[in-house]
Amino acid sequence: MKSVAKILAAALIGFLLGVVSRMLAHPGQEFNTVYARIQAEQVTSQSQWLHRYDIADSNFREIVKPNVDTIYSTAVLDLAQGNYAITLPAYNNYWSLQVMQQNTDVLGYIGSRGYPDPITRRVEIRSDCPPQVTETKICANGRLWLLARYLVDPITPVTTANQTQDKLQLDRID
Amino acid sequence: MFVRFLTILALVLSLAYGYSVTPALLDAMASTNLSAGAVFNGNWKTRFDLARADTPFFVRAAVAQVGLGANQAEEALYWTTSSDNHGNPLLGGQAYTIQIPATMPEVAFWSITAYDADHFLIDNPADIYAITDRQYGGGTTSVVFSPAPAYDTLWLPNSPKEERVTLILRMYQPSSKFLQAPGKYPMPTVQRQ
Q1: Which of B14, B60, B68 comes nearest A63 by C-beta?
Q2: Tens digit of pLDDT for each residue in A24-59?
Q3: What is the pTM of this model?
Q4: Is the N or the C terminus of chain A less surrounded, counting Cβ atoms within 10 Å?
């Protein structure tokens, strides 16, 4: 009986260890999957920003539970390769740039919530400063996933949002 | 000696098994909307701890599985319900009334979007996937959530299939007042017809 209990206990402990270790690894794994996919598209399209020009519909399968409020532009970069600068064009409605780290935590935002003036902004992304996100600077390490969202509604229809997306820039600065 | 061998074998095999089934476990956790630590208002649940450094590891893992790219609470709240007012599962093939209260919480804008059992937008010939605040002028409003079209009222298509469906109420840029007391504000109700 004791032996059986020992074996069962080992099985339970092993199972829990397996689950916990996978949970800890999973966000990074999912980030890597997305990073690789976007990076491949960046190479194919020779464009740093990848734009989804349409609101999602039932054919959209890239991510689960997509919203139908905003359209997306996305890019990935690796600060180990150098520093970057983004040009964020003016947008006369809700918009946001979400900066995600390799563990999928959001480092911060630049968007209409913190900076409501619809002006064009140039933001440097650097690794030589403490982690932060401000109106003009994103400081981080390693690989980042940038996700820009633009609200589509009667004030800013899809065509306006698309024109804004096309003005997004991401350039190496060193 | 043999018992020790079996013990180690059990540990290793179950560890590998636990590792392999975790994505499915995360799907199941997400389907229950991760009640531990959730914020409730009526049938709706949300979390305030998404995408942050202090997010619990199991929440981070579940969000990576079913909601990668989710916003932090100050940017957007995701209220989810998979049940009606009586706690019964929301099902495709059924008709419901979503009652929008006269005064919704103070947010920049909101939407209610419907998803099928695979967490994708519900396929429908009208290409309607959500109801938004921009579609009506305010006041109490009824929305019919059904597979068959509704006329003379707002309509959100439900799945025609017998499957579990989910509604997500997205609130963008919720006010700090709302974030401090999210349970106090009236929220939409979902009543089976």
Answers
A1: B68
A2: 999 999 999 999 999 999 988 877 999 999 999 999
A3: 0.89
A4: N
